[in-house]
Amino acid sequence: MARLLLREDEDLIRPVPEIWRSFRSWWPLAAAMVxxxxxxxxxxxxxNQEPQTPLALTVELQPEGWLxxxxxxxxAIRMARRARLYVVSGNSNRRIELGPTELASGVFRHFHTxxxxxxxxxxxxxxGRLAAESFRVVRR
Length: 140
Hints:
The protein has 3 helices and 7 strands; from the N terminus they run H-E-E-H-E-E-H-E-E-E.
């Protein structure tokens, strides 16, 4: 066990230097200022965020095939870096790269077979975020 040895002229409790006393009184103010500046710096970013508009993927059976459509004004489509439409039917898997013109049109025609189909639209945004919707059609 350690012992504390003091000389006769030493006190166990030493006075706190004046600088530390003043620090204790102003550090909460400094912390509040940092928080306030962070919030103020983020306000323009938060104000510029618009509500997310969904892709609204739909599929309709028409005499000439499947009409796959989506909302061309969807937030993800306006921010798209890359877009893919996946079509799965039976044993067939197909990946279709969609260009800016096809995305802006909001439609894609797929000539059908009589099998069940799953359509998946994936949009990779410029920020790296992935937006996707799927639609499954079951034939009876």
